[in-house]
């Protein structure tokens, strides 16, 4: 019986570049909670951003933030993975040395930037809607760093191979969408974060489902009993998993309907 459902956001729950949930999403998450199914948002986004996005449902949810570096359930920290300060400083300097890249430095609740272009600050604050602060030096950051991201407006594909070859021995490096590559502690991924969450809730992996579309979702999709890959996923990801979804909310509705018809019926294959 499914007890927890995790979903990636961008490209999965949020389709076609959307920055807001559909009107169906929050009421559906609340209905799932009423019948004992926890919904977890698994994203590269920061915690306050996700809380604002999910509004009234946030208090009943779990969050796998910053690609799994920070895990929260009902306001309680479950897991937090910090990055090595010395290697992180070198990584940030390397990103800034690339002419067309910006760097985003993530703490628990605030993103820090050293913007080359004012448009980057506007994008993070007004489009992505992060809590964001401009700094002049790393010494201005008053907390531990849990994730670093490189942003390239024209697309990260051209630059990602360099970053991966240079830094994959020091960090977990993951392309996250069209414009971003994320760096976290080497042990961090959405699957490991979900494992920590499930262990804290005494839920077995085969009692969980997940939705995803990109490379940073692979560990999570493989860890759960029912991993749904989105129809818009890259072909090499799409072919790995037998369960497919066109729209997360449509599949969640089927989870809910089956639970209400028969509370003891497994619903992983809907």
Question: How is the secondary structure organized here?
Answer:
Layout: E1 4-8, H1 25-34, E2 38-42, H2 47-54, E3 62-65, E4 70-73, E5 76-80, H3 85-97, E6 102-106, E7 111-113, H4 118-127, E8 132-134, E9 147-151, H5 160-167, E10 172-175, E11 180-184, H6 190-201, E12 208-212, H7 218-223, E13 226-230, H8 235-238, E14 243-245, H9 248-261
Parallel strand pairs: 1-2, 1-12, 2-3, 7-8, 12-13, 13-14
Antiparallel strand pairs: 3-4, 4-5, 6-7, 6-9, 9-11, 10-11
Helix pairs in contact: 1-9
**What is the tally of helical segments?**
9
| Class from helix and strand fractions | alpha/beta
Major sheet: arrangement of strands: 5-4-3-2-1-12-13-14
Flag low-confidence runs.
266-270
| Rg estimate, integer Å | 18 Å
Structural account:
By secondary structure, the protein is of the alpha/beta class. It has two domains: 4-80 and 188-261, Rossmann fold; 85-184, Hypothetical Protein, Haloacid Dehalogenase-like Hydrolase, Chain: A, domain 2 (2-Layer Sandwich). 31% of the residues lie in helices and 23% in strands. The protein is built from nine helices and 14 strands. It has helices at residues 25-34, 47-54, 85-97, 118-127, 160-167, 190-201, 218-223, 235-238, 248-261; strands at residues 4-8, 38-42, 62-65, 70-73, 76-80, 102-106, 111-113, 132-134, 147-151, 172-175, 180-184, 208-212, 226-230, 243-245. Strands 5-4-3-2-1-12-13-14 form an eight-stranded mixed β-sheet, with helices on both faces. Strands 8-7-6-9-11-10 form a six-stranded mixed β-sheet, with helices on both faces. Helix 1 (25-34) runs parallel beside helix 9 (248-261). The protein is globular and about 60 Å long.
């Amino acid at each position: 019986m499914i007890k927890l459902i995790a979903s990636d956001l961008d490209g999965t729950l949020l389709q076609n570049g959307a920055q807001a949930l559909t009107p169906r999403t929050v009421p559906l998450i609340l209905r799932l909670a009423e019948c004992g199914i926890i919904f977890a948002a698994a994203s590269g986004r920061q915690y306050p951003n996700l809380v604002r996005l999910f509004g009234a449902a946030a208090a009943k949810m779990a969050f796998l933030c910053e690609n799994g570096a920070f895990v929260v359930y009902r306001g309680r920290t479950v897991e937090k993975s910090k990055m090595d300060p010395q290697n992180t400083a070198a990584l940030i300097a390397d990103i800034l040395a690339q002419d067309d890249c910006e760097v985003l430095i993530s703490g628990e609740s605030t993103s820090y930037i050293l913007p080359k272009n004012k448009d980057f600050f506007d994008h993070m604050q007004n489009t992505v809607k992060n809590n964001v602060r401009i700094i002049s030096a790393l010494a201005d950051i008053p907390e531990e760093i849990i994730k670093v991201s490189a942003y390239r407006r024209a697309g990260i594909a051209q630059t990602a191979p360099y970053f991966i070859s240079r830094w994959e021995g020091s960090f977990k490096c993951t392309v996250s969408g069209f414009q971003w590559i994320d760096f976290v502690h080497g042990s961090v991924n959405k699957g490991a974060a979900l494992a920590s969450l499930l262990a804290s809730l005494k839920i077995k992996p085969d009692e969980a489902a997940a939705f995803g579309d990109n490379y940073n979702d692979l560990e999570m999709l493989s860890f759960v009993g029912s991993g749904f890959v989105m129809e818009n996923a890259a072909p090499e990801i799409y072919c790995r998993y037998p369960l497919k979804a066109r729209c997360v909310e449509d599949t969640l509705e089927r989870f809910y309907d089956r639970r209400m018809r028969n509370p003891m019926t497994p619903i992983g294959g809907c």
